[in-house]
Design a protein that fits this description.
About 5% of the residues lie in helices and about 30% in strands. With about 325 residues, it is mainly beta. A four-stranded antiparallel β-sheet has the order 2-1-22-21, with no helix packed on it. The protein is globular and about 50 Å long.
Length: about 325
């Protein structure tokens, strides 16, 4: 079943979202001579670039989505690539600085991380180099890879409180958000999860917000999902979470939280600026997308305020 993707646009600073359908209008000038307009375009340079991985050629099973991340893994000033893969380890490709890439999964010590769905990168310990967080397609825990600054990574999720290990009802990671929600200068983690049974004794650990302990423990985390008011209710037999947007929609200086998820369960929370959030989904105009999956934020109508685009399958 397919439904139309929707654009949510802010009306003013005191209101949140309202939907507007727009028509594309073409205006033709018949009596004017217009100068040609040169527009930027794209060229497919995959062939010869060293990017040869094929996601799946099987007709027996349509593969689920798998994420990718563009980040300077070896800190040489050039953007590298890392891909999540099913049935295999993640694939890291180092930029050769000439438009081509070379495989570097073994070189970076990443061969152990298999069946990963999503990858995100950010300087979690504020030491100047990017760390990695990996979310499983169907597994019991997340992985936190701390950049050692020498071309290698150390997996430290358990000792740093970012593993979210469960004994049952595996995680089904769909995205990862890095955001400094409390504005202490350190990146926090929001980990949406999809398909966790409502009666699990570990519900509070799903779709989790992990606060970076900051100066007292850089890149060490505490689960503040309940304390902040972001524990997600179950819908039917499952908790749902696909993607999230952390944006200061009301322009008060604090990042607000929009959760995008399936079966009309998308939600909007205002950041109170004191470590808590207030849910305002109905008044804010979210939750009307039928099957929310992805999102993007931009000033769609050019009024100086950020809008939210939500995809719906």
């Amino acid at each position: 079943m397919f439904t139309i993707s929707q654009i949510l646009t802010t009306l003013n600073l005191s209101q949140s979202f309202s939907f507007h359908a727009r028509k594309s209008v073409c205006v033709y000038a018949t009596l004017c001579l217009l100068s040609p307009v040169t527009r930027a375009g794209f060229e497919d340079v995959t062939t010869g670039s060293g990017i040869t991985y094929v996601h799946s050629t099987s007709e027996e099973r349509i593969p689920d989505e798998a994420g990718a991340c563009a980040v300077d893994l070896n800190q040489d000033g050039w953007t590298d690539l890392i891909f999540a893969r099913f049935g295999d380890s993640v694939l890291a490709l180092i930029n050769n600085q000439d438009g081509t890439f070379r495989p570097a999964t073994s070189e970076l010590g990443l061969t152990a991380y298999r069946d990963i769905a999503v990858i995100a990168a950010g300087d979690l310990d504020n030491d100047g180099d990017p760390d990695l967080i990996l979310g499983p397609s169907d597994g019991p825990r997340y992985f936190l890879l701390i950049n050692q600054g020498n071309g290698s990574f150390s997996e430290e999720a358990v000792s740093r409180g970012a593993d979210l290990t469960v004994s049952a009802n595996n995680h089904h990671a769909r995205s990862i958000s890095l955001v400094d929600y409390d504005r202490d200068g350190y990146l926090d983690l929001y980990l949406p999860n999809e398909g966790i049974e409502r009666n699990s004794s570990e519900d509070a650990r799903q779709s989790a917000l992990l606060r970076n302990r900051g100066a007292s423990g850089p890149a060490s985390f505490e689960n503040v999902t309940v304390a902040t008011g972001l524990l997600q209710p179950a819908v039917g037999d499952s908790h749902l979470g696909f993607s999230s947007a952390w944006v200061d929609f009301d322009e008060d200086g604090w990042p607000d939280f929009a959760k995008v998820s399936d079966f009309g369960t998308s939600q909007l929370y205002w950041n109170n600026g004191n470590g808590t959030f207030t849910e305002d989904t109905k008044q804010g105009g979210l939750g009307v997308d039928d099957f929310g999956m992805g999102n993007a934020v931009a000033d769609v109508n050019g009024d100086g305020r950020l809008d939210l685009f939500v995809t719906s399958i």
